Amino acid sequence: MPARKRDFIIEKGADFQRQLFLKAGPDADIRNFTGRMQIRKSATDSTVLFELTTANNRIACDYGVITLNIANADTTTLDTSSLTAKGKVTEPGPIGELPYESEGKLAVYDLELVSPSGVVTRYLEGRVCIVDNVTR
Q: Do 24 and 64 contact (CB within 8 A), yes or no?
């Protein structure tokens, strides 16, 4: 199955946490899976701007939910100097709320889940909009 599309907004200087919910059922049990996600300037760029994994505790896989975490100390020091593309990104809000929209520097990512038997699934892909903060 191909990866689903979803964009994210990362605000420099703020904590980034997102919970991604899986449809209930046997495929929702990802408690023993590992996750990995890389943010790059482009899919073909060799430089990783930021990496989230279960090993570095920036991804947590639980029953029916994947949690992504980037601490504000890390978003503050996120080097975006190589990013030349700028644009607007819309990110879904919580259920019952309006979506979030922001403009900033654009990068790309994908999120892979690895089963205990080693099967790799590209779960999500999309753009990351990195927004500079004013308050330091």
A: yes
- DSSP helix, strand, coil percent of the chain (3-state; round to 5): 5, 50, 45
Dump pLDDT digits (tens) for 6-17: 999 999 999 999
The reply to whether 68 falls in a domain is yes
In the chain, how many domains are there? 1
Burial of 102 (0-12, 13-18, 19+ CB in 10 A): middle
The radius of gyration of the chain from alpha carbons, rounded to an integer in Å, stands at 15
Picking from 111, 53, 50, the residue whose alpha carbon sits closest to that of residue 80 is 50
Location of structure tokens 């190589």:
82
Q: Residue 10 belongs to a domain with what CATH number?
A: 2.60.40.10
Domain residue limits at 23: 4-131
pLDDT tens across 38-48, in order?
A: 999 999 999 99
Question: 104 with 129: CB under 8 angstroms?
Answer: yes
Residue 135 confidence (pLDDT)? 85
Which amino acid appears at position 53 of this protein? T
Runs of H (alpha helix) within 26-116: 72-76
